[in-house]
Amino acid sequence: MLSVEILHEEIEPIDENLQNLLVRCLEAAAKLEEVQGEVVVTLVNNERIHELNRDYRGVDRPTDVLSFAMNEPGEGEMEIFIDEDEASEFPNMLGDIIISVPKAHEQAEDYGHSFERELGFLTVHGFLHLLGYDHGTPEEEKEMFSRQEKVLEEIGLTR
Fold it and tell me: Is 129 annotated to bind ligand?
């Protein structure tokens, strides 16, 4: 099972139907990847994601989505080992996904599809990053994007 929390930071909350769409996207992706755990999705404005992108990635501009995985140790962090017998007592916190709502609107218009489809795409994209997928090489990109499309097709978010 996947537990999802949706937060709004420095923006008006999106409506309940869109929030349910994000949950459906994440549940479909989790099912495809056979993973359980907890995910927090925070919806922000361009100024906030710009700040996070600059502070955490060293890129001084807004972006569409950022992912902060909890299951991969960062540089200089100590790895935590949990006894298998005790593992069920701890939730599998997969991480945080930060999405710029204004950027999603812009990109939906640029790509000629719905805002819902763009928001779903960014949600699944961020989720796959939490699981370690990347698109730094053509092979990685092909694998990641095919998984994204499979999830989006499954829930009816086609182009």
Answer: yes
